[in-house]
Specification:
- This is Nucleotidyltransferase-like domain-containing protein.
- It is a single chain.
- The chain contains 9 helices and 14 strands.
- The chain is α+β, with helices and mostly antiparallel strands.
- The strands form 4 sheets. Strands 5, 7, 8, 9, 10, 11 and 12 form a 7-stranded mixed β-sheet that branches. A 3-stranded antiparallel β-sheet has the order 2-3-4, covered by helices on one side. Strands 1-6 form a two-stranded antiparallel ribbon.
- β8 and β9 form a beta hairpin.
């Protein structure tokens, strides 16, 4: 990538905030691992007597029972190991949750981040539901991940201003996604309503949900190809649910290298954002700006964001230049 002459302003978060972010990030990643460990021991195991014989029963969180066999040294060991793992996982998760709360207070005190709280809450909801791997954040909100990784803030705040978040569904994983949602007996709309009950689908565009403050969540997909269903309803839930709108050239966003960062809200709360590589972001934004049917104001903003991210990479994330976009 050609070196640009610096012409944009940056806000240095300062050494104290930078050290705090590093510490908080370490706690958050440990909390993620502890959460996964706790999920692996969800449900319970118990002994059930049938016709005079004790059987070890694994009970899932939705009440499904599975027999693991009659009582024996092996099944008793399975039971004891499960109970020990469950106690240890719950204790570790509880302790890390308390530590995470302290780190979040420190984040707020030292002004570590500025991402919208609603964004953080939605990302955390997707993570807790095991859905993060199906969606990629694209568009303006990706800038929060880039600046978090770089340890600086974009000075051109007009480039950050937006009232909507775009989630790109990986349609190649749709069957797994629908199966997971069917098992959970929920819909995407219901999940984001757990974050904010005021979210409603827009009547004129069913791929958008908007809350009472005007913040929008859009679900998009690549252009239909091969056996992709079209139109595509996100789940088969009987209530209101998102339809997924195709976006031109969105395939390059799925095919590019992934990028992940821990973002921090102004309140100090944290979430992992899975987004696209900054190099892919630059490529896509430049392409959008060249489209003749693109609104003039949006084209100007596309170029501004592309230039900002390009300079950010050159100045603070040069290691990414070895990636192939």
């Amino acid at each position: 990538m050609k070196k640009m002459r610096k012409k944009y302003s940056w806000i240095d978060i300062g050494d104290d905030a930078r050290r705090q972010y590093i510490d908080a990030q370490s706690v958050f990643t440990a909390w993620e691992e502890a959460y996964k460990d706790m999920l692996s021991v969800r449900g319970s195991m118990r002994w059930k007597n049938q016709n005079g014989t004790d059987y070890l029963i694994r009970v899932s969180t939705v009440g499904n029972n599975k027999s693991l066999g009659p009582r024996s040294e092996e099944t008793e060991q399975i039971h004891d190991n499960f109970v020990a793992r469950k106690i240890a996982a719950q204790q570790r998760f509880s302790e890390l949750s308390e530590t995470l709360e302290r780190q979040q207070r420190m984040n707020r005190a030292l002004f570590v981040g500025r991402a919208p709280r609603i964004l953080v809450d939605i990302l955390n909801r997707l993570y807790k539901e095991g859905l993060s791997g199906f969606f990629t954040v694209i568009g303006t909100h990706a800038l929060y991940a880039y600046e978090a990784r770089a340890g600086v803030l974009f000075g051109e705040t007009e480039a950050m201003a937006t009232q909507d978040i775009d989630f790109l569904l990986d349609v190649r994983k749709r069957i797994s996604f629908v199966t997971k949602m069917r098992y959970a007996a929920t819909s995407m709309l219901k999940l984001i309503q757990k974050v904010d009950p005021s979210f409603r689908l827009r009547e004129d565009q069913k791929y958008t949900a908007v809350n009472s403050r005007g913040f929008e969540v859009d679900i998009i997909r690549r252009e239909p190809k091969n056996d992709d269903p079209h139109p595509m309803r996100l789940t088969d839930d009987e209530g209101d649910e998102f339809y997924v709108v195709p976006a031109r050239n969105a395939g390059i966003l799925l095919d590019g290298p992934p990028f992940s960062a821990i973002i921090v809200s102004a309140s100090g709360h944290m979430a992992r954002m899975n987004t696209i590589s900054p190099l892919t972001f630059i490529q896509f934004k430049r392409w959008m700006a060249e489209q003749a049917d693109r609104d003039t104001m949006k084209r100007s903003r596309d170029l501004l964001q592309a230039n900002l991210v390009e300079e950010l990479v050159n100045e603070y994330l040069p290691q990414l230049l070895t990636q192939k976009s």
